[in-house]
């Protein structure tokens, strides 16, 4: 406190303009520090999409053996977001820039990456989550079709993508390759359909986050329909790209039924 009073008494002897100038110096320094200091946020933007019915970097995303596989038309595109790395420097300027842009989002770093883990550990975690998602997607799809996993082998391969959010689209891709719409047609109806959502072995669809950015990635890559976990309808409708129809889902069965109804033009198709 004496040190602080010493500065105040010194300022009291200055003329008003000089006093203001001297006071401004620590304020400017504080603002400069705030602008350039690292903040606990990640910047995210629409990422790549991949057609699970096709190839990714030269390899089929879904390979099935042990049973007859049907040809498909249309696309089922899983969607991603791209976020700054866990060790990236994000400052106030970045946050303010992202806050006012529709093609970027500011997200708490802990909501993007596990807290306290290094880059290598996070990469391993995301890879493991992807493997678990693939296993659950395969089990959910084969169970939906009444097939036994012991008789059919499914291999899923998607380069440079981690996390569990492609689960729903993996399952739909397997269903389309094996059964289509159940009556000889394609599950997609020839459309470019995109979406996101985790899935468990029982076929339950879970929320993933970042859906507003994923809808932009989907529309950019030609999708006209977007499957979204029902709990994230409100987020998905935020600045929804023109020409993109939202279909909320809670289960694999519900997603299949909605796509069949859309493809055949029969029955009701839910909306957000």
UniProtKB/TrEMBL annotation:
Domain of life: Bacteria
Gene Ontology biological process: proteolysis
Molecular function per GO: ATP-dependent peptidase activity; serine-type endopeptidase activity
N-terminal signal peptide: none
Residue span, Lon proteolytic domain: 163-247
InterPro entries (alphabetical): Lon_proteolytic, Ribosomal_Su5_D2-typ_SF, Ribsml_uS5_D2-typ_fold_subgr
Protein name per its UniProtKB record: Lon proteolytic domain-containing protein
Taxonomic lineage of the native organism: Bacteria, Bacillati, Actinomycetota, Actinomycetes, Kitasatosporales
């Amino acid at each position: 406190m004496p040190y602080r009073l010493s500065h105040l008494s010194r300022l009291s002897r200055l003329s008003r303009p000089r006093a203001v100038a001297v006071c401004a110096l620590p304020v400017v320094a504080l603002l400069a520090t705030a602008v350039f200091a690292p903040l606990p946020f990640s910047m995210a933007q629409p990422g790549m999409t991949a057609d699970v019915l096709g190839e990714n970097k030269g390899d089929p995303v879904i390979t099935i053996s042990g049973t007859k596989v049907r040809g498909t038309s249309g696309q089922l595109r899983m969607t991603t977001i791209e976020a700054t790395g866990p060790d990236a420097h994000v400052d106030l300027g970045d946050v303010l820039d992202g806050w006012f842009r529709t093609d970027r989002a500011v997200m708490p770093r802990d909501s993007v990456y596990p807290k306290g883990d290094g880059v290598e550990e996070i990469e391993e975690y995301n890879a493991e989550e992807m493997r678990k998602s693939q296993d659950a997607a395969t089990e959910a799809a084969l169970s939906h079709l009444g097939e036994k996993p012991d008789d059919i082998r499914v291999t899923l391969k998607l380069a440079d993508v981690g996390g569990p959010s492609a689960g729903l689209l993996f399952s739909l891709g397997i269903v389309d390759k094996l059964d289509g719409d159940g009556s000889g047609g394609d599950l997609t109806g020839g459309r470019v359909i995109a979406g996101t959502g985790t899935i468990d072995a029982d076929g339950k669809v879970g929320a993933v986050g970042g859906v507003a950015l994923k809808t932009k990635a989907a529309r950019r890559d030609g999708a006209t329909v977007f499957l979204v976990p029902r709990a994230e309808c409100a987020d998905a409708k935020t600045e929804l790209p023109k020409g993109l129809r939202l279909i909320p889902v809670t289960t694999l069965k519900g997603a299949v039924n909605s796509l069949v109804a859309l493809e055949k033009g029969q029955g009701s198709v839910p909306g957000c």
